[in-house]
Design goal:
Strands 3-4-7-8-9-10-13 form a seven-stranded antiparallel β-sheet, with no helix packed on it. Strands 1-2 form a two-stranded antiparallel ribbon. The mean pLDDT is about 90. The protein is elongated, with a radius of gyration of 22 Å. By secondary structure, the chain is an all-beta fold. It has strands at about 1-5, 10, 15-30, 35-50, 50-55, 55-60, 70-85, 85-100, 115-125, 130-140, 145-150, 160-165, 170-175.
């Protein structure tokens, strides 16, 4: 379902294939420290996609890379767990990366592409009383990219899109009754 600015067009690829590899590694160099790395490499391809919805009408995307699927994506994280008396605590840092990719098939890549390169962090404590306190931050480096893009409603030549979530912080409190 592709939005064309005034309505939706349903177009199905005749055949789409993806080759790829995944890597997932965990390393525990010292007690309490856990380092993780995960990577996915994909080679997606429309084997047959005649009649796709393009910026200027129907087109043949056969042999092209589907939009929205990055070739390389990675997640790197480190968590350190420790105790302070009877309090269990942790700190965590995470990096999320997705290689530059066209957002949707019917908007050219030079107008609507995205590369994700964001950092998340959290720290927390669990008290013997059952109280848990977690402070977290998502996209703490303020990375900006489009989640989606589409021709603007009834405004030929204009493009609208939905941006990612901005830098966000929060505090989560939990209590376990036992």
């Amino acid at each position: 379902n592709i939005f064309n600015g005034v309505g939706f067009n349903l177009a199905n690829a005749g055949k789409q294939s993806t080759d790829g590899m995944e890597l997932d590694v965990t390393w525990v160099p010292i007690d309490g420290l856990r380092v993780g790395f995960a990577a996915t490499w994909l080679d997606p391809l429309y084997d047959d996609f005649q009649g796709a919805v393009g910026p200027d009408g129907p087109l043949d995307l056969s042999g092209q890379q589907p939009a929205g699927i990055p070739e390389l994506s990675t997640n790197t994280n480190a968590t350190y767990n420790f105790s302070m008396g009877s309090v269990m605590a942790y700190v965590r840092l995470e990096h999320v990366y997705e290689q530059d990719v066209q957002v949707v098939d019917n908007i050219p890549k030079d107008i609507a592409s995205r590369e994700i390169n964001s950092f998340n962090a959290s720290a927390g404590m669990t008290f013997a009383s059952g109280l848990e306190l977690n402070f977290w931050g998502r996209n703490i480096n303020g990375d900006e990219y489009l989640l989606s893009a589409f021709p603007s409603v009834a405004q030929a030549g204009s493009v609208s899109g939905y941006p990612n979530q901005p830098r966000t912080y929060g505090l989560t409190l939990k209590y376990s009754f036992e």
